[in-house]
Every structure is written in structure tokens, then in C-alpha cells.
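Ticket #4471: structure export looks truncated?
Reporter: QA, pipeline team
Priority: medium

Steps to reproduce: submit the single chain below to the structure queue and open the exported record.
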Amino acid sequence: MRSDNTPEFDPTAQPTFNRDRRVADGLFLIQIIAAVGFIGTQVILMLTNTEGISLTWLAFWWVFLLINLSLSLRAHKLQPSRVTIQTVITYGTWTLILALCVAIYIWRESTIWTGVDTWTTGLSLSGILITLLVGYSNKLPISDPIVRGYLAVFFKAVPQLALSYHILMVGGAGMSTFAIVSGHITISSRLGQVLMSLREAGWDRNRRGSAISEFANEGTWIIVTIAWLIVL
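Actual output as written to the record:
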């Protein structure tokens, strides 16, 4: 601190800021490329083939995105920044894409609901309800990182496990190669960011919540990929 009470210039702050900004911009670019590719491959494929796709996988994914979109909009209103804008755009884009996928699936399929959807819904809703009740009993809001981490398990990981079983039973021709590969790329990019931040800042609540979410997401997506490869 200078004698006039103004802070001294820290030469290390600017490189750190630039690096964080480049990482954020890079992750945003990956998400947008994946979204455009998903439209051009998976959405187009679903117009003619939905084999292996389940309504609950799409629906729970869409609701999860909708929740995150609302939370990111609130965060942006409270403290606008370049990162919050990118987050809103990312969740907004994927929310619209998944809404389109749900609409296409309902439009194309004569049998919309299956037994897999029934037990997936039961397991997921039970887990979601337990998570919210535990969070409420501990006075934790839905925006709490740990609560969101476990919600992700039941909104994403459980439906993905059910999806892998569904693919093994009926085939996976309705899943595009791009959707499978880009899923790993987008999840791994976020997981890599979490691991990098863990090394720098430690195992705090935000990073624990993110780690729970992304490890469960990637682990179950690997199982989906294995099921898809088996039935190719």
C-alpha cells in the first residue's frame, strides 16, 4: 500500500487474469462448437432414427439445463461479467437444443414411454427429492455447490446409466458419433478446469460440488460409450 492509501501494482495479477480469461474463453468456445455440431449431427439424425434414445434421458438433461440457466441468469444479474454472460449463453443454447430434441422424439416415436423410462424416473426423482430434503434440513439452497453436485448425479448420471442399458437392449443407431465423442470432450474440459483449480485453491465447497457432478457425469458417459460400441 502506498502512502496515499492506493494499492501497489502487482505484476503477477495481470498474467493470472489473462490466463483465466483465456481458459474461460476456450471452454466457452468448446461448448459452442459442441452445440453447433450436436445440432448438425444428433438433431438431424433424430429426424430419421431415435434407436437407443430414451425420453427420460433427454427430459432430465433438459430440466437440469433449465435449472442451471435460471441460476446463471440470477448470478449474472447480481454480478455481471464476461464469464457470467458466456455461462448464460452456453446454458441457454443447450436448453433450446434439448427442448428441440424432446419435441422431435415425441413427434417421431409411436411408443414414447417405456419400462426403462418408468424406473429411471423413479430412481432419479427419489434421489432428487432426498437431495433437496437433506439440503433443506441443513438450510442449504438449491444453488449450494454440494446440493447442485448431487442433483447432477440424479439428473444426469442416473439417466445415463439407464440409457446405457436401453442401448444394449434395443441398439444405438440413433446416437451419433459426434454426440458420443463431444460428450467426453465437453465433460473432460470442465473436469480439467476443476482439477486445475483444485491444485491452485484447494478442496473448497464449490470445487467439491463441481467434482461430484463432473466425475459422475464422465463415469456414466463412459458406460454409455461402452454400451454404444458393443452394439455397433
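Status: closed, not a bug. The export was complete when the record was re-opened. Leaving a note from the reviewer for reference: The chain has seven helices and no strands.
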